Amino acid sequence: MMSPKQVAEDRGLPSHFRQTPLQIIHIIANFMRIWSIYSMYRYLSQTGASVVLVLFACLAPASVLFLVLQKPWKGRPLSNRQVVPSIINGGITALYFILWGKGLKSCGPVRAILAEYSGAVLGVLSAVLYGQKSHVWKKIGGLIAMLASYYLLSQGWAMATYSPFSWEDSTDSEAQTEQLLGLKEMSIPIFAGVLSALRRVITRRVSLKIQLKRRLHAITIASATCFLFPVAMWDTIIGSPSGSSRDLPFSMWAFLSTIFFGIILIFYIDSIAEERLHMVFSSPRHLMVAGGCIIVMEIVYKMDFSLPGFIVCCLFLGFGIYEATSLEHARKDSSRNSDLSNGELGDDLQMSSLPT
Asked: Is 6 helix (H, G, I), strand (E, B) or coil?
């Protein structure tokens, strides 16, 4: 129990000062995750390794570490209403990793990362099913803005070679592998982003308590590994061409960074950001953090990058995300202004208002 002095000190500090350390940790964690994505992209593009096999090799040790850390078999027994949806969520997670990996290899890191925010379209679906007509039109406008952003990304606006804001050819970049795409090719990472949002929704509906959510997440990742195992074996035996049977080089940093930063650490950091900073994944604030990290990595890796075109795409996407979740902003603001004398009821209202 906190002493009156500690309570007075906490009340004396402005809220943004108390949240500053968490915001810094959130930025660093997202930077490390995006760094791992660029490392994995370079490994996949240079070696031509199987996407499914590489992701399974990263997901298997991550699932073991999650099980060791959370120990879902200990503590209060989990009910079937919690375990069964978590196992089903594992199948969705496995499909998400497959589509996300293939989208990363074919579309490049910028388009693969920004496509993860397509899960905000679930806010449009919630408005159509449960919202008012005024909110529906706002969300449809947000959906149009998001589609415009992804169309501009597919047309290479974030690349110096194809961007209309670039007046000189970028011939000194090391990575010219990204090509012009259509919305058909972009649909793979976009659908992966929708699946990522769907698995977050299922996680919130199963449990609102953070400790129980972590235990169930360990079951989800373990089941995702089991679902991914036969696909990886099939891809290794049948899907690989005969000419690629040679031994592929191994990148320690690409695998370790994906395991620790891309799968494990980012889960805990996003959970803390959601609980303490009220920052969900599909939000303009999260997009702003990811956009800054992408700019740094594009410069460091000397990619074919256009900063003005990238900013234009992010502005369209951020506006679309904000409008697509406009109803949830109103609900969250009203829940903060209400009297939250019952803590569990306040958490329930706040978490149920998050569509992604």
From this structure: helix
Which residues, 6 or more positions from 237, have their beta carbon under 8 angstroms from its beta carbon? none
Q: Rounded to whole angstroms, how far apart are CA atoms 123 and 26? A: 24
Q: Quick check: helix, strand or coil at residue 177?
A: coil
Burial 67-77 (b: 16+ CB within 10 A, else e): beebebeeeee
Whether pTM exceeds 0.70: yes
Task: Please check whether residue 39 is in contact with residue 257, taking contact to mean a CB–CB distance below 8 angstroms.
Answer: yes
Its sign, for the CA torsion 19, 20, 24, 27, is positive
Q: Which of 12, 88, 30, 56 shows the shortest CA–CA distance to 281?
A: 30
**What is the Cα–Cα distance from 313 to 145, expressed in whole angstroms?**
10
The pair of structure tokens assigned to 212 is: 């129980």
Q: Which residues contact 166 (CB under 8 A, 6 or more apart)?
A: 160, 306, 308, 309
pLDDT at 9 over 50: no
**d(Cα 18, Cα 21) in Å, to the nearest integer?**
7
Instruction: Please state, in angstroms and rounded to a whole number, the distance separating the CA atoms of residues 344 and 350.
Output: 10
- CA–CA distance, 132 with 137 (Å, rounded to integer): 9
Average pLDDT, the chain: 81
Q: Which of 13-22, 227-236, 272-281 has the lowest mean pLDDT?
A: 13-22
Q: Which residue has the tokens 């369209």?
A: 316
| Six-digit token string for 50 | 């199987």
DSSP state, residue 342 = S
What is the Cα–Cα distance from 209 to 344, expressed in whole angstroms? 9
State how far the Cα of 326 lies from the Cα of 322, in Å rounded to an integer: 6
Give Cα 115 distance to the centre of its chain: 9
In the chain, the percentage of residues whose pLDDT exceeds 70 is 76
